[in-house]
Specification:
Elements lengths: L1 H12 L2 H21 L2 H30 L1 H8 L5 H30 L8 H28 L3 H29 L6 H9 L2 H12 L7 H11 L2 H28 L3
Helix pairs in contact: 1-5, 2-3, 2-5, 3-5, 3-6, 3-7, 3-9, 5-6, 5-11, 6-7, 6-9, 6-11, 9-11
């Protein structure tokens, strides 16, 4: 698996799209810091970009890499290699390369602007950690979709639909549910609903860490009471970890049963 991971990683590192992805974050970080000259405000602005963009890029890259490397994958399947090792290696290669582009692209500008001497270092670290989690989650979901659909158009369509649902549609349904059942106690419902969506969970963690949960009103107070505690933080990261593990396990089982 490690040899395939290494090959996939270096293959993506040679790809121009990886450099474009790196350059985008590098330029974004430099522009934000040049305009704001305040690390804390830049982190808040970056949150809105990362929460939406990172899942989209992870989804597109995951599906695209699977379909583009299909012939090479069939060649590997003819060798005495485990199917799970092949697909896990490819998945980890894509996820790690995207995470590195994110960390380097944003880390370099912030370090140049004195990140290590600022109190915003912990907020920025949480931003990068949640960004890496989202990269691994949506890349794994993209591989699952690609493994389940031979047709490229269907695969891309389902992948974009999944991102659209979790990034936009889910929030609309969630808010409508809160409005419709506002007469009932919705504390636990709102907490569970947030944890069932990795994008919402990541956004809530960052908002609470930035101490601007008051903008969320009563809901923010509930989130602060739970997610603001050490136990809530552990549960939140455990849920993000679970969002990574479950799709990865499905990649293993799906690759074993799939007829190539």
């Amino acid at each position: 698996m490690f040899k395939i991971l290494k090959y996939s990683f270096y293959d993506l590192m040679r790809s121009r799209w990886s450099y474009i992805y790196l350059a985008f974050y590098l330029l974004l970080g430099l522009v934000l810091l040049f305009l704001n000259n305040d690390l804390s405000k830049a982190v808040i602005t970056l949150m809105n970009v990362i929460i939406v963009l990172v899942p989209l890029i992870g989804t597109i890259f995951g599906v695209m890499y699977y379909y583009n490397s299909r012939e090479f994958t069939e060649l590997l399947l003819a060798q005495p290699l485990k199917r799970s090792s092949i697909f896990l290696g490819q998945y980890l290669g894509v996820a790690i390369s995207l995470s590195m582009s994110l960390i380097l692209g944003l880390g370099i500008p912030f370090m140049l602007y004195g990140l290590f001497e600022s109190a915003a270092i912990w907020d920025f670290s949480l931003l990068l950690i949640t960004g890496c989690f989202l990269t691994f989650i949506f890349t794994a979901l993209a591989f699952n979709i690609a493994l389940s659909n031979e047709n490229k158009i269907k695969g891309f369509g389902f992948a974009i639909l999944l991102w659209l649902f979790l990034a936009v549609i889910y929030d609309g349904i969630f808010l409508m549910s809160l409005i419709l059942f506002e007469e009932y106690p919705l504390d636990k419902f709102s907490l569970v609903g947030t944890m069932l969506n990795p994008i919402d969970l990541s956004r809530t963690l960052i908002l609470l860490k930035l101490d601007i949960s008051a903008l969320l009103g009563y809901t923010g107070a509930i989130f602060k009471k739970f997610f603001g505690t050490r136990f809530g933080l552990i549960i939140s990261f455990f849920m993000l970890f679970l969002w990574v593990v479950l799709p990865t396990i499905r990649i293993v089982f799906k690759s074993r049963k799939k007829d190539f």
